[in-house]
Amino acid sequence: MELLELRNLKKYYATQKAVDDISFSIAQGSIFGLLGPNGAGKTTLLRMITGIFYPDSGDIIFNNKKFDPLNDTLFIGYMPEERGLYKKMKIGEQALYLARLKGLSKHDAMEKIKYWFMKLGMESWWNKKVEDLSKGMSQKLQFVTTVLHEPKLVILDEPFSGLDPVNANLIKDEIFELAKKGSTIIFSTHRMEQVEEICDHIVLVNQGKKILDGTVPDIKQQFKENLFRITLANAPAIINNPSFELVKQVDNKLTVKINEGSSSNEVLQYFINENASIEAFNEILPSLNEVFIRLVEGTKATRQFQQVTV
Amino acid sequence: MNKILLIIQREYLTRVKNKTFILSTILTPLLFAGLITAVTIISVKNLDHEKIAVVDPGGLFKGNLENTKTISFEFPPGVDSNNYSAKGYSAILYTADSGNNTYKLISKKQLGIIAEGNLEDKINETLENNLLKSKYRIDIKELEAERKKAGNAEIQQTYHEGTQVKKGNSGLAYGIGYGSGFLIYITLLIYGNMVMRGVTEEKTNRIAEVVISSVKPFQLMIGKIVGIGAVGLTQFLMWIILIAGLTAGATAFLPKETLQQAQESSQQMPGAGGNVKAASSAATEFNEIKNTLGEANWVLIIGCFLFYFLFGYLFYASLFAAVGSTVNEDANDAQSLSMPITMPIIVSIMIMVSAITNPSGSLAVWASMIPFFSPIVMMARIPFGVPGTVPYWQLFLSMALLVGGFLLTTWISAKIYRTGILMYGKKATWKEMWKWAFRKA
Known about the structure:
The complex is a heterodimer of chains A (310) and B (441). By secondary structure, chain A is an alpha/beta fold. Chain A contains ten helices and 14 strands. Chain A folds into two domains: 2-221, Rossmann fold; 225-284. In chain A, 32% of the residues lie in helices and 29% in strands. Chain B is mostly helical and 441 residues long. In chain B, strands 2-1-3-4 form a four-stranded mixed β-sheet, with helices on one face. Chain B has a two-stranded antiparallel sheet with strand order 5-6. In chain B, β5 (158-161) and β6 form a beta hairpin. The two termini of chain B are 22 Å apart. The relative contact order of chain B is 0.11. At the A-B interface, β6 and α3 of A face α1 and α6 of B.
């Protein structure tokens, strides 16, 4: 079931097409990665999904209904990339305030705050002020205030930046748990290794357009270059066969590219015939990082300002 | 609606619970009272009592020089310029021979200018009295009595207000007008800037984006403006209560004599001329004020004050909020961007100063219609009388324009605010703000 569906969303600024006709959908309970280089239009897209911006055209379907920014915000938790909390406000009061702004009653908010503070070891923070917290601690608090009201859709923009590995793992586990409980998570980041680890489904945007959409394994398949790594006990002196090309050879470790129309069995057959005993054979799939760089590279790193005629 | 209340509550409570707020609310009136007390005490202490020995061979002055709290005259025998200080006098006065008007006053230290002026007055008065008595055989006490009977003319200004005839008092109107205009001026600046700083803080803290994913930017802006307005009202109320309390306390606890002395010292300021006359006229004026205070239309004045205070604040606060939303970390930006908003407030106080001397003049009338100036200028005119000086149509038009202006500035500001609060990096130009304000959606 789809929780969120974007249809032909457009948002133009005076000098930029920030979001230019983007459509995709996100399944309920999935962890969705929204990727893209700086200035690709991710933040604008997220701000439209959270109801901060209105799209110039296009529809957002949330929970099978047209998205209603006034009432649906209760079901959304948004942690923006630029973190913010009231510095002079006490932590407990702050969490309570933000939860009540989402529409929770005072009583419900208190119970949930207590639950989360216990869970993440923050009980002693209640009367402290944000300015007394370290960056990592305030990040944790920010995360709690984002998910406190048990939103159906949690939007996290770079949630791990500034966190040490221990706290990052803690938050990561919470994200998995939220997804298991049925929350849908949109996860926006530049860190591809985290995406590979966490996300089920990704969309890559660049210059306001969607350039990639799919599950992580599918995308890897889509971008594989038929590269295989072969480790041999003894490499033959001359390697030459029409079914593949040798890309790289370091001692007995070979990297080969299988030509169109040939299969891996033909390659293996060749080495067996050459009397080279095969110790390992595996396919090299591209990392998301490589896919990302391949797709984004070549386009201008920073977006040029352009005249937009609507 | 509920969310706006939450925001108002937060804005109000975090400010009211702030230590700086509590201290400034309590300390300002205390400081004010302390300053007044200190000035009073110093001026009372400064009044040295001078004992002056008079050498009066003609015998013209003995018994005719009146002693006062600050100067007393004695006519001891055998005192001269060599031994007067040893005998406990601070100065010695040699009276003039007949046909000569030079009096010699010798002292170790310079006598205060008050004492000197006082002395001249007293000698002149005595001489005059003596002359009247010897030449015209007029009893000076009788003359005074006659004078008091005759010379008590008093202009009673009345004006027609509908069918009612009212006593006018432009002095009082002047005071009320000036006071309330100035009060509104201060409020606009203080709390307007507070709104601006609050908005900028939310923006640079990056909390704004979190909050407006829960509420509409307009709700956040209005919540802040109303919350800070409530803080302002609270502070004013506290000040009024504290000042009233302190004044009552001071009158109750300070000895009567000190207060009297303080009054006297203020009357004896140099240049006050005939002290007695000034004092008596001051006293009658004071009584008049007391009488006319009862005649001023307090319900109307206070009602109008609250109206102009409130809507003047709302009119400007949203503009300040819009400016605050366009500011980034640089504090200098705030100053240069808020200039165009502070200017009309400063201009209005300048117009008010002129309007109050001519409350029916065209400058006063026009300025009290324009919402940028009306909160201050109209408040200066109203005490002069409605509908005498300010016809009803002017008052209602001015109010309507101010409310309309408030709706307009809030509408424009909300649009600038909505965009500005999420714009990081660079300072907005006026041209950009204009675009944000007037583009659709």
